[in-house]
Design brief:
By secondary structure, the protein is an all-alpha fold. The chain contains four helices and no strands. The longest helix has 12 residues, at 3-14. 20% of the residues are buried.
Length: 74
């Protein structure tokens, strides 16, 4: 997962709350850092995404394959 895919996945899943969750929610899965802190520390976006999903009870069905852009139509 690229950082841009992480950003898109968080925005799609959490909408208006996305920025607040990334900046303020401490995630046990990444050492009790916020997503923003973990990104700044070089933690893989995929690891942060799963930690965020765990902490906010995102169902498994919405955790995989998110953040990808729609393929271009030819």
């Amino acid at each position: 997962m690229r950082r841009s895919e992480f950003t898109r996945a968080v925005a799609d899943e959490f909408g208006a709350r996305a920025a607040m969750l990334v900046a303020d929610l401490a995630l046990p899965g990444v050492g009790h850092r916020t997503a923003a802190e973990a990104l700044a520390d070089g933690v893989e976006p995929r690891e942060i995404w799963f930690a965020l999903c765990d902490e906010t009870d995102v169902p498994a069905s919405r955790r995989h394959g998110v953040g990808l852009m729609e393929p271009r139509r030819r």
